[in-house]
Amino acid sequence: MLRSWHERFKEKGLVVIGNHAPEFGFEKSEKNVREALDRLRIGYPVVMDNGFANWKAYGNRYWPTKYLIDKKGVIRFFSIGEGNHGRTEAMIRRLLAE
Predict the structure, then answer these.
(1) What is the Cα–Cα distance from 72 to 53, expressed in whole angstroms?
(2) pLDDT < 50 regions, the chain
(3) Which phi and psi (to 5°) does residue 19 adopt?
(4) What is the C-alpha to C-alpha distance for residues 90 and 88, in angstroms, rounded to an integer?
(5) DSSP state of 93
(6) Which end of the chain is more exposed for a tag (fewer CB within 10 A), N or C?
């Protein structure tokens, strides 16, 4: 869904940023991550969070977690786990309309 939201809403102001927090050692390699991003055709930026700095800063405990942050930098919505796409997209639309 992230790829779809990125493609459909980037011209309206949505900025999607992935956060790659590796589970295994080979996932810490920039080369491996770049190859995976190319293979998966990920067109939005992805941060390599090898030290889990972002993970910790957000107090994250679950994967995946999606955060919607407004223009002022305030977290307005988050969703834990797979699914919940309809509710997330509704909030994306709402925030873009503000």
Answers:
(1) 21
(2) none
(3) -125, 110
(4) 5
(5) H
(6) C
Q: Which residue has the tokens 């809403």?
A: 9
Please report whether residue 40 resides in a domain.
yes
CATH of the domain at 45: 3.40.30.10
Residue 94 lies in a domain: no
Structure tokens at 58: 């957000």
Burial of 5 from C-beta contacts in 10 A (0-12 / 13-18 / 19+): middle
Sequence-distant contacts of 57-61: CB under 8 A, at least 24 apart: none
pTM exceeds 0.85 for this model: yes
Alpha-carbon separation of residue 45 from 12, 31, 69, 87, 94 (angstroms): 17, 15, 16, 23, 23
